[in-house]
Each structure stands twice: as C-alpha cells, then as structure tokens.
User: Fold this.
Amino acid sequence: MMEALVLIKVGTGEHLSFAKTAKEEISKIEGVVKVFGVFGRYDLVAHVEAQSLDAISNIIMDKIRSIAGVLATESLIIGY
Assistant:
C-alpha cells in the first residue's frame, strides 16, 4: 500500500465556503482517506492511499485536479 499527502491550492472566493466545497468534493474520491483545511501556502491537505504509485498518480491527476477551483497540487509520497 502506498500513501501520499497532497498539498492543494484552491482559487479564491468571497467566502471560506469555496474551500469547504472543494474539500467536500475531494473527500468523496475513492482512495482519499482524509482531507484537512489548513492555513498557509496551501488551503487543503489530502491523505491518499492506493495500491501503487500509478494509482496514486491517477487519483491526483485525474480526480483531485479536475475538481472545480483546484489550482495546483504538490505531492509528498510517504516513504517510511
């Protein structure tokens, strides 16, 4: 089992609910264990689990990045 932390930047909205909506959508994706709203350079951090690095890549590239409002991601693959 492979694990990663995905740092996510979302676009700005008039209300904090913009980031909350993206958080809710990301949390529905299969393989996403937990999503945290954070303060700093990134807005969200997602804990992702999958059977392989390719599967993690598909979750990030095809699913998380396709969520409306997601501007950028940075992935931290957990090594140990």
User: Anything to note?
Assistant: The chain has a mean pLDDT of 93. The radius of gyration is 12 Å. Helices lie at 17-27, 53-64.
